[in-house]
Amino acid sequence: MNQSINISESVKEFIIRSKGQFIDGEWVKCLNGFELPIIEPSSGINIGKLSEADIESVNKAVESSVQAFNPDSEWSNLGPSKRERLLNALATAIEENADQFAELITLELGAPLSATKHFEVNKAVETLRYYAGFPSKIHGDVIDINQDMGDQHFFGYTCKEPVGVVAAIVPWNAPLMIAVWKLAPAIAVGCTVVMKPSEEASLAILRLAELAHEIGFPPGVFNVIVGRGETVGNSLVSHPGINKITFTGSMKIGKEIHKKASDKLIRLSLELGGKSPVIVMPDADLEEAVPGVAMGAFANSGQVCVAGSRVFVHKKIADEFIERIKEFSLGLTVGSGLDEETQIGPVISKKQQQKIESYIDDAWKSGAKLHQKNLSKSNGFFVPPTVITNLPRDSKLLNEEIFGPVMTIEVFEDENDIILQTNSSSHGLAAMVWSESHRNIQILAKKLRVGTVFVNTPAFPPPSIPTGGFRESGIGRDLGASGLEGFLETKSVISKIS
Ligand code: NAD
């Protein structure tokens, strides 16, 4: 495996230029704070560092966003068509810098450049353009309230207003795309945003803030502070200047934030983890299902909230399906994300690698069968795509989110058992169905109690379709027109006419 790192001049310059925080339109370095190393996952090599925000920087970022949201501010008086232009201009600026964004993401996350550029960067651009269509179409209603009022006449209407200063907390597994899922609707309605990326993947989001400033976002409208969750994230969500928290990450941290937000009745949306079942019906088209199911589990090295990591295949086709999935998985090219031929990169960190390996080890100890490629020794954080069969029914692998390139396969005869298991799980993010029967598809789509059902396709996030979870997989929705709702308040005006 290639251990040398080839970093472009523009990315090297950005790593030197980025001083840790982008607040009020400028770089802010915290001299006394913790230093966050930037580790390239295919080599384990440290390629730079960022300074973590201290409490003064968190306060400064929130206060700057509070000022920018002030009713007399430039931002609050900008008008919807200017917000549309800014969102479109940011989309164009990302497109023009697509190679740089892809490299920044790959250097921290490890995902192949082909995926970071053609999937993640594209999705960020599409999402900005999608929400750029909304600002001038957001409006309230005129409501007739002249009921049993005698001679008195009233006039009533509602307005949709931005909720205020938004704290946006983002995970590492698709940093730019998820940052934009939060930024674009918040900006579309006129909020201001303080974003905290994951301490493991901050670079692309810092570049996004710098670019937003360059194309004309007023200072304070989009601030970025970097640092660990327990320090910077905690200070941000506890800050009295915040009106809304939008969080994407693990269930554990989501629940902690939920408690803090409920104490102060802060508006909150949560996009949390998943354990998404994949149901391969006996009439599935295996030509499509085999690569689709495999890449649905292994893309981004399985570090995807909607990864189809628990596969159920019908007994009638199980032997053929399992053989073909194993063959496909063994044929995948694993390597550095910076190499063009790589299909599966490393996982993000040593810690993540060890966590995934411990799950695989548990499976092996419980007598399951493992099918995985032998990889040559490397300092990188590689885990080969792994197919596990013959797992005992009580294995924790079947119920916990592994967040790695690991797929379990179980054989079923009656799909009602799977519906029951899915609907009684604490997870409820997504499910995938592979079938050529319209009737089977409609029945399963109706009965599965999850946020999104993907039919004959691995999961992907079109900006126009809401995404989110049932049960403990979250509260609220990102994306789609309903993704705007969490950033809006409804104000009613009642006025006497005569
Ligand atoms: P995580 O919960 O560890 O961290 C997410 C973010 O929260 C990071 O920025 C982290 O620094 C911050 N954080 C941690 N502790 C905090 C605290 N006490 N207060 C405030 N912020 C804190 O999750 P992760 O490991 O970065 O991401 C992986 C998880 O995200 C997986 O569970 C995955 O399923 C989930 N995810 C969900 C979706 C979705 O749309 N539902 C999308 C992507 C990822």
Question: Would you give an account of this structure?
Answer:
By secondary structure, the protein is an alpha/beta fold. The strands form five sheets. The protein has a seven-stranded mixed sheet with strand order 14-15-16-13-12-17-18, sandwiched between helices. It has a six-stranded mixed sheet with strand order 9-8-7-10-11-19, sandwiched between helices. It has helices at 9-17, 55-69, 80-96, 98-109, 113-132, 175-189, 203-214, 229-238, 251-264, 286-298, 318-330, 350-365, 415-423, 438-447; strands at residues 21-23, 26-28, 35-40, 45-51, 142-143, 154-162, 165-169, 192-196, 222-224, 244-248, 267-271, 277-280, 310-314, 369-372, 386-389, 406-412, 430-434, 452-455, 474-475, 488-496. β1 (21-23) and β2 (26-28) form a beta hairpin. α3 (80-96) runs antiparallel to α5. 51% of the residues are buried. The chain is built from 14 helices and 20 strands. The protein folds into two domains: 9-272 and 475-492, Aldehyde Dehydrogenase, Chain A, domain 1 (3-Layer(aba) Sandwich), CATH 3.40.605.10; 277-462, Aldehyde Dehydrogenase, Chain A, domain 2 (3-Layer(aba) Sandwich). It is globular, with a radius of gyration of 24 Å. The protein is 37% helix and 19% strand. Bound molecules: nicotinamide-adenine-dinucleotide. Nicotinamide-adenine-dinucleotide (NAD) binds at residues 169-173, 178, 196, 198-199, 228-230, 233-234, 237, 248-250, 253, 256-257, 271-274, 305, 401, 403, 429, 467, 469, 474. Nicotinamide-adenine-dinucleotide is lined by residues 169-173, 178, 196, 198-199, 228-230, 233-234, 237, 248-250, 253, 256-257, 271-274, 305, 401, 403, 429, 467, 469, 474.
